[in-house]
Amino acid sequence: MTWSPRRVLLAALCALTVVAAGTTSATADPADPAPPGYDAVADLAAMRDAYGRIIDSGGQLQNPAYLPALVKESTVVTTAQLLQQVADPTHLAVTPAVAVPGWNVGNPLRAGWAGTRGRMQQVSFTNRFGALLRGTLYAPLPGARDPYTGARLTGPYPGVIITPGSVGGSQGMYQWLAEDLAERGYLVLLFDVQGEGTSETLPHTGDPLFPFCNPFAPADGDPALGTNQMTPCPGVPFQQLANFTTGTVDAIDFFLSDANPWLGLWDSSPIPHPITPGRTTRLAIIGHSMGAAAVSYVQGYDDRVATVVALDKLQQAPNGVAGSVATTPVVPALALQAEYGFTVTPSFLSGGSSLVPAAGNPDPMRERASGFDGWRAHGLDTMLVVPHASTHLDFTDIPLVLPASRWGQALSSVYTQTWLGHYLQGTTPARALLAARFRYLEPVGHGRWKKVTLTRDALLSTRYCSAYSLDISGHVREDLDIVDVGC
């Protein structure tokens, strides 16, 4: 890579911005010299790469199709959401996705996917607290072929449920994964939990005295299941683990019920040789952020789940979330995790978790410790992938304003496709997960998808270890430090 003065200046400005932001979590003595061995050039390069989705070649600012598509799709999505609220005024969603234009637009370069590469249908269902949750089903087109292999896709299909992240996470941000999976032969439900996206904010009790919630009632839920409520008003505030655990289970209930208009597309036949005894339902759950914590919990006690994919982060030990406790690893798990959180901090502020920066140098074991090592200790197939310069936002599509690496999302998609191809579809050998190169189809606008090749080792973190422990043809194969970071 050639570093122009403009790029150096941009990286330096990013560094100054995030250092200022980082001082809210950890304060360093400005008189202290840089840590021994600190490589400022490499650190600035990594921080610059963490904005690659915006500024790199083919990124949001470099693709001339992006901004016109963003304006068009933002208008369409925002108008549709407002009309939906007007048509159903008794189930209000008071959320950023509805209030902020463009919040829920996702990747506008994917416009035109429905009807050409797959199909989608909006759905709604009521959660256990009476709140209306909204979602979207995704499936292959009738008679479609797999865009990677050319094989004919014939239903019925294995099921996948995607739970969004917190802090205003909403469906549009995760369309990339739902669409990528649907066109490979899955029936996918992507939904908004209570209080996020286009789902209703308040519950309904049916009590004429307290129609939404009884402020004098005891808080509901079970701490051991991650479902304990913070207040007597279930689902309020939305920023609580229980919204995501209960939302995931309620989404499973809907998906497997006659209320699902596409239930006939789901393969209800039992898995003949399940990886986990008793887990024979052809269903995977995927979650991001708080949703990742939720699916880590739910797989432990919902026997309808065959495998799990956690997008930053797979959780095994308590993770600092209020009320969180240790989870119980039961099914194979893929962990896709990030180097940075919401802000891009210098390496000497990497002593904490990615989400809460603190003074200290990167610990190569950090991402392994969150969940991978616990799953491996239980003798379960598990894999951890940490993309280079990735941020917590790599797993969402957000226009222009927040950091994300150029290829972290694409790498996460191909690993998810490969993982589910083996553990859910049963069509992909486990050794495919060990490949050094992957093909990916990236949307570039105007209804076009471009073939790209992703080289694994060049796209993995050199700070935090990626790893795997997998049963391949009856033998456990392990690499606990794929690119020799230092674990």
TrEMBL record:
<dbReference type="InterPro" id="IPR050261">
    <property type="entry name" value="FrsA_esterase"/>
</dbReference>
<keyword id="KW-0732">Signal</keyword>
<protein>
    <submittedName>
        <fullName>Alpha/beta hydrolase</fullName>
    </submittedName>
</protein>
<comment type="similarity">
    <text>Belongs to the AB hydrolase superfamily.</text>
</comment>
<keyword id="KW-0378">Hydrolase</keyword>
<feature type="signal peptide">
    <location>
        <begin position="1"/>
        <end position="20"/>
    </location>
</feature>
<dbReference type="InterPro" id="IPR029058">
    <property type="entry name" value="AB_hydrolase_fold"/>
</dbReference>
<dbReference type="GO" id="GO:0016787">
    <property type="term" value="F:hydrolase activity"/>
</dbReference>
